[in-house]
Specification:
This protein has a five-stranded mixed β-sheet with strand order 1-2-3-5-4. It contains three helices and five strands. It is an alpha+beta fold. Strand 2, helix 1 and strand 3 form a beta-alpha-beta unit. The two termini are about 30 Å apart.
Length: about 130
């Protein structure tokens, strides 16, 4: 997992906003799904990605406390995947689901089919 943290200046006397940008590793992408070891390896990789999500949340909590947080980047995971349940449990909101419009998919291709780049925000934002 890669991530960076920024602390933009506060405006109007408000607390600074903690902005985390990340890129999670790819899930296991294999065509030979009939092989049992592929499923075991995929589960291992998914577990590591889930740990990365927990680490991001811990880092956001450590840096922001109860202050505003914007967490975004390339999650290499489609929107509404169960991997994002900890974000929702931590009170973060998928910004596109809350306020977005139009075609949200972000995979670069002639026919994008998944929104793997996302922005999640704390309850400090509308």
């Amino acid at each position: 997992m890669y991530y960076g943290v920024a602390f933009p200046d506060a405006l109007g006397g408000r607390a600074p906003v903690v902005v985390l940008s990340t890129r999670l590793p790819l899930p296991l992408l294999r065509a030979d799904i009939w092989r049992p070891w592929v499923w075991r390896e995929a589960a291992t990789v998914e577990g590591l990605r889930a740990k990365d999500i927990q680490a991001l949340l811990a880092h956001a909590k450590r840096e922001a406390g109860d202050g505003p947080v914007i967490l975004g980047g390339d999650f290499n995971t489609p929107a509404r995947h169960s991997l994002f349940a900890p974000f929702e449990q931590a009170g973060l909101t998928d910004a596109f689901r809350a306020a977005g419009k139009g075609w949200p998919n972000t995979i670069t291709s002639d026919f994008p089919v998944a929104r793997i780049d996302q922005i999640w925000v704390s309850g400090h934002f509308r």
